[in-house]
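Field log, afternoon session.

UNIT: design team B
ACTIVITY: writing a sequence onto a fixed backbone
BACKBONE:
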């Protein structure tokens, strides 16, 4: 009996071991083939680009279900979305019932895990979404969802989300939402007709905007909801639930139901416990700063509901959000003053129908800050088709007293803001230039304004006045000091209302002058990408971007402007800013010991690599200073470092720019010419080598007169046309190229002096190779010897010819030798 038991246990142990071994080994046998199959079938189904680093299968992770995981998965669209990544996921895992592999009814997916994932959903202005990536079914008679149901049966019991970020950008509807670092768990029996869904979710940052109006700004969101889900009928009824927005805790009552056209709903917001302090928590600056110690008072009423049908972007349900604040105040106990007499009446409503029927009203928004009253009233109707707006702002803000009501810490703020303005009308009036039908009057004044932030240069505006009229916004002469930099502005802006309301093009004239402007102060110190190209979908730090909806004509004048290592003085010219490009016309300045006149264009619209296409006319520029200040010269013409003297000339250049606004050297295209009247070649290594070869030490200190060089820049090399370099009595004719790798590839001829022994040698071939730090000069010594022998034979022949005693036989031998040397040439 004992023997039988032992044998049975042994067999069971071996069997269990084999099973466990198979569970570990089998996935490795199939996952390579499965990964290939997924990619092949995915490309058949998707009108998009997608890939993943690895596909893993585990039979133990969610046993008895098999886990199929994709790691480092990404999905991009095509056409207008080819540069936009729809999904980028660290891990996507699905738990599939093992037994469903052995039937013909498809695969049961019971759990989905999403980790470290980013989703960027976009709707273009014409309504095309970037998530429409499925190719049409080749069998028109078989609905796509019916085919999918034959393959997969979703019996989902749990959805787990770990670190999910979602951006929704509806450019047609004007809706934007940004949700960051979402953690969520959703459970229920989604394979049945009816279930209770338990949803728990939390995100530290949620931002929502509609029509350019911020509804939520980086708000912390938490939800704990039980939803009675009628999956067969498509109706979802809210049971016990809790929503928290920062410090505001809310409850939702009602239901939502799917329809063929969209969705029906009846939702009501329950906010019995909301006070003014909780309302203030929606302001990020207040919620983040000693919020627990904040003292508040006042009456708050908040009501909201949505009732009716939603059908895409064409119809919204009846909804209303009503906020009323009466006689409220807040104050930090540690500070001497507070904000008092806060009265707000805000209403957003739509009777049901098109989104354009939405009405927004904030009337009034009044408060008193440290004894200074301020009042704002605003209404907006027809916000989508033709915004009908009215805005008034009146009051005074003493910015120096802000520190008495709010803890500024490392910030200093001073100055007086006085507002007395009224704006009203329709956007169409602006577009049709019906300015007489609009209301626009008043002014906004800034006096003695100063802002000091930690690790930032102080900003100082002594005085500035904005004057409003229906046609234009006038900015009177204003001087802004930023650290040691100063800017004086005098401008007039047209279509400022269209720019503010719908982002249409802002037009204007702008006069800008400065005594000292250091552009390096306004660029990032992060130069880690100094030699890398800027990707098309990346806005690199340090790049000066040009907005595409600005059309300015600027007259610029500056006494001193610093950029990178360059110092420009006494500059002036015309700048045309349009379509993300700055067109520079006759921009002249002094630099590098001489003067430069520039004509060209700098293009740097959003999300594109900046480019420079410009022509430079240069006069009396120092070789050494050009090398010191310009990275382009350091890499393509390092010989400038050792040259003493000045040059003049012209340069046409076309190049993309990197993250530090420097040319991408491998992609530079250009051509030009330079000339010099007085150039010292002392210390130039290849000249020293030539002097040693021809045994003429004085050439090492020679000065060159009238040097003219034409050159072309292409594919990382500078190629010069043949040019003459006169070294005392010697003349070199050179042509060739130099490269980014510092290599030299020149050929030429050196002509010996016209008198003396060397004059007998004539012209000799030469080469210059190696690198700038280690050049190699070669002179054709065989050619040199032939020339010397030929000259000697010629002399001997002439002597014999004059010698009456010379024999004809000797002269014949000499002539044959001369012919032989000529043939060898």
């Amino acid at each position: 009996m004992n023997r039988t038991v032992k044998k049975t246990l042994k067999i069971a142990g071996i069997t269990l071991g084999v099973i466990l071994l198979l569970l570990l080994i089998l996935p490795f046998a199939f996952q390579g083939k499965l990964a290939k199959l997924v990619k092949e079938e995915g490309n058949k189904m998707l009108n998009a680009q997608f890939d993943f680093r690895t596909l893993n299968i585990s039979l133990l992770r969610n046993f008895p279900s098999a886990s199929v995981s994709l790691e480092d998965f990404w999905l991009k669209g095509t056409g207008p979305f080819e540069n936009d990544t729809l999904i980028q996921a660290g891990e996507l895992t699905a738990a599939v019932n093992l037994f469903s592999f052995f039937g013909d009814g498809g695969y049961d997916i019971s759990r989905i895990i999403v980790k470290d994932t980013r989703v960027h959903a976009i709707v273009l202005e014409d309504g095309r979404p970037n998530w429409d990536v499925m190719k049409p079914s080749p069998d028109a008679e078989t609905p796509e969802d019916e085919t999918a149901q034959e393959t997969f049966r979703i019996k989902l019991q749990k959805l787990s989300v770990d670190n999910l970020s979602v951006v929704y950008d509806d450019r047609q509807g004007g809706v934007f939402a940004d949700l960051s670092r979402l953690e969520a768990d959703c459970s229920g029996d989604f394979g049945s007709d009816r279930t209770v869904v338990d949803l728990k979710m939390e995100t530290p940052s949620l931002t929502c905007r509609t029509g350019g109006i911020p509804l939520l700004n980086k708000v912390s969101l938490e939800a704990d909801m039980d939803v009675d889900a009628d999956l067969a009928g498509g109706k979802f009824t809210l049971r016990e639930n809790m929503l928290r927005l920062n410090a505001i805790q809310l409850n939702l009552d009602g239901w939502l139901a799917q329809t063929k056209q969209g969705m029906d709903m009846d939702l009501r917001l329950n906010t019995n416990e909301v006070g003014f302090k909780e309302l203030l928590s929606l302001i990020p600056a207040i919620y983040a700063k000693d919020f627990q110690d904040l003292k508040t008072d006042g009456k708050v009423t908040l009501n909201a509901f949505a009732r009716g049908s939603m059908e895409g972007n064409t119809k919204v349900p009846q909804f209303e959000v009503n906020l009323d604040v009466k006689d409220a105040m807040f104050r930090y106990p540690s500070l001497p003053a507070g904000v008092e007499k806060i009265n707000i009446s805000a209403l957003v409503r739509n009777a049901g129908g098109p989104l354009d029927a939405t009405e927004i009203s904030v009337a009034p928004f009044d408060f008193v800050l440290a004894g200074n009253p301020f009042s704002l009233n605003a209404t907006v109707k027809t916000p989508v088709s033709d915004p009908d707006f009215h805005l008034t702002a009146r009051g005074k803000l003493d910015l120096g007293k802000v520190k008495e009501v709010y803890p500024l810490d490392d910030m200093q703020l001073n100055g007086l803001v006085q507002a007395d303005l009224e704006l009203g009308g329709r956007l169409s009036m602006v577009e049709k230039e019906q300015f007489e039908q609009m209301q626009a009057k008043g002014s906004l004044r800034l006096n003695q304004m100063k802002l000091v932030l930690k690790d930032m240069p102080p900003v100082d505006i002594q005085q500035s006045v904005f004057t409003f009229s229906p046609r234009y916004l006038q900015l009177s002469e204003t001087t802004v000091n930023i650290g040691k930099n100063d800017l004086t502005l005098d401008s007039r802006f047209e279509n400022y209302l269209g720019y503010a309301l719908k982002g249409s093009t802002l037009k204007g004239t702008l006069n800008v002058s400065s005594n000292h402007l250091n552009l390096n102060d306004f660029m990032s110190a992060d130069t880690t990408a100094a030699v890398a190209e800027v990707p098309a979908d990346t806005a690199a730090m340090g790049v000066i971007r040009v907005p595409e909806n600005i059309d300015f004509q600027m007259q610029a004048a500056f006494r001193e402007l610093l950029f990178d290592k360059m110092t420009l003085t006494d500059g002036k010219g015309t700048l045309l800013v349009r379509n993300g490009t700055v067109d520079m016309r006759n921009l002249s300045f002094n630099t590098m010991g001489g003067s430069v006149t520039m004509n060209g264009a700098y293009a740097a619209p959003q999300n594109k690599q900046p480019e420079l296409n410009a022509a430079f006319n240069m006069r009396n520029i120092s070789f050494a200073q050009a090398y010191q200040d310009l990275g382009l010269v350091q890499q393509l013409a390092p010989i400038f470092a050792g040259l003493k003297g000045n040059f003049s000339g012209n340069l046409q250049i076309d190049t993309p720019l990197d993250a530090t606004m420097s040319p991408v050297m491998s992609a530079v295209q250009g051509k030009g010419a330079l000339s010099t009247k007085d150039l010292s070649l002392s210390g130039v290594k290849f000249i020293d080598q030539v002097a040693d070869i021809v045994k003429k030490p004085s050439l090492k200190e020679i000065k060159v007169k009238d040097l003219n060089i034409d050159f072309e820049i292409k594919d990382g090399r500078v190629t010069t046309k043949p040019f003459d370099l006169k070294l005392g009595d010697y003349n070199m004719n050179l042509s060739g190229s130099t490269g980014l790798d510092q290599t030299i590839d020149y050929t030429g001829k050196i002509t010996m002096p016209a008198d003396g022994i060397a004059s007998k040698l004539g012209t000799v071939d030469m080469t210059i190779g190696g690198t700038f730090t280690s050049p190699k000069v070669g002179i054709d010594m065989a050619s040199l010897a032939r020339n010397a022998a030929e000259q000697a034979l010629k002399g001997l022949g002439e002597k014999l010819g004059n010698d009456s005693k010379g024999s004809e036989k000797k002269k014949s031998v000499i002539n044959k030798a001369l012919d032989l040397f000529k043939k060898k040439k």
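LOG NOTE: Residues 275-409 form one domain.
NEXT ACTIVITY: expression trials, pending approval
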